[in-house]
Amino acid sequence: MKRQSKFLLILLCLSLLLFKAVSGNRFVENGIKRAEIYSNYSAYILAQQEIEASGMSDDKNNLTRAISVHMLGIVIGIFLLFGAAQLKQIMRAIVKVLNSAQLNQEIFKPPKNIYIPI
Q: Which of UniProt's keywords are assigned here (predicted)?
């Protein structure tokens, strides 16, 4: 019994080492392929960036966009912070109405059988 378990353990270790070697080789191959793809596209991207840079003489435009996005985020955050209390008060009344109506129980009730004597 011990001999079989040792054999299985050695077999498992060898299979793990083989898997690591194969996956490492594939990782390297995929890295090389990605590098080739990026090298082909990098020239195109750099050309596009040069065209965009030559068209925009001011760097203030990018800064203005970033500031406006941050200000919009701050305004939305403040609205959510102060609006949460008001929203809770409004939703509390709606939840009470829904719970008192017990809609869940009424919707899924089976129909009542009415016995009609003949």
A: Membrane, Transmembrane, Transmembrane helix
At position 32, the amino acid (one-letter code) is I
Q: What is the mean pLDDT of residues 48-63?
A: 60
The total number of residues written for the chain in this structure: 118
HSE at residue 102, side-chain half, CA atoms within 13 A, is 4
Cα 17 from chain centroid?
A: 34
Would the pLDDT of 104 be above 70? no
Indicate if 50 and 78 belong to the same structural domain: no
Question: Looking at the structure, do residues 42 and 62 belong to the same domain, yes or no?
Answer: no
| pLDDT for the residue numbered 60 | 52
Which pLDDT score, from 0 to 100, does residue 42 have?
Answer: 65
User: 63 with 118, same domain?
Assistant: yes
Tokens at 54, concatenated? 């030559």
Domain that holds residue 88: 58-118
Distances (CA, A) of 54 to 4, 16, 80, 111: 72, 54, 41, 75
